[in-house]
Amino acid sequence: MTTRKKIVGILLVFLSWGWLFAIPFIPLTSNKAVNFHFPVEGVVQYLLVFFGYPGCSTVCPVTLKTLAHVYTDYGKIYQDEALKVVFVNLELGMTAEVSMRYAKHFHPDFLGYHLSKRQLNQLMDELGVSFFKYDGQEPLHTSYIYLLERQLAGWKMKYVYSQPNLVESNLMNDLRVLKSRRY
Fold first, then answer.
1. What domains does the chain contain, in order, with CATH numbers?
2. CA 152, CA 78: separation in Å to the nearest integer?
3. What percent of the chain has pLDDT over 70?
4. Is the distance from CB of 27 to CB of 170 less than 8 angstroms?
5. CA 81 to each of CA 40, 58, 77: distance values in angstroms, whole numbers, following the listed order
6. Distances (CA, A) of 51 to 77, 87, 135, 158
7. pTM of the predicted model, to two decimals?
């Protein structure tokens, strides 16, 4: 009987974690303040933030290519500098230069950040980012894309997208809606 309980317990943990990584295909809305200063210059009103690491062979390239399409399409429509894409490196052992170079590989206007361990942990906790490293295995991480909007008091999280290969049209639509509210 105890073996059966253990198996059921493990199964329940597995299913609950599975649901965490399979949050709905539609963007989750929020208006949560993000307590981190993203140093961006200019008239930036919106940030698309993605957490990953250079060398990732699965989630990161797909997501950053999607973000490059969104960024390019946004520029064609609005012809302003209100949108920036930020890549936050989850690997602590790399330099800021590596993070920036990796981000710029996908688009020359992308920003790549390398944070201190304390800053990274704070931001990961605040935004619900997961990063797991196993010996000899490629690290696993959540593939969320965060759309932040600049407010008077700082950045507010507006949407969270969980499926990078399905969000391109949702992102553009949400940016249109946010921009239309500003004018």
1. 2-182 (3.40.30.10)
2. 22
3. 80
4. yes
5. 11, 29, 11
6. 26, 6, 21, 17
7. 0.80
pLDDT at 28: 54
Is 11's pLDDT higher than 80? no
Q: How confident is the model at residue 30 (pLDDT cuts 50, 70, 90)?
A: low
Q: How far is CA 151 from CA 59, 62, 117, 123, in A?
A: 30, 30, 27, 18
Share of the chain above pLDDT 90, in %: 40
Contacts of 94 (CB under 8 A, 6+ apart): 53, 54, 114
Cα 100 → chain centroid: 16
The Cα–Cα gap between 166 and 151 comes to 27
CB 172 within 8 A of CB 70: yes
* Nearest one of 25, 49, 27 to 36, comparing CA atoms: 49
Q: Which pLDDT value is given to residue 153?
A: 78
Locate 46 and state its tokens: 């919106």
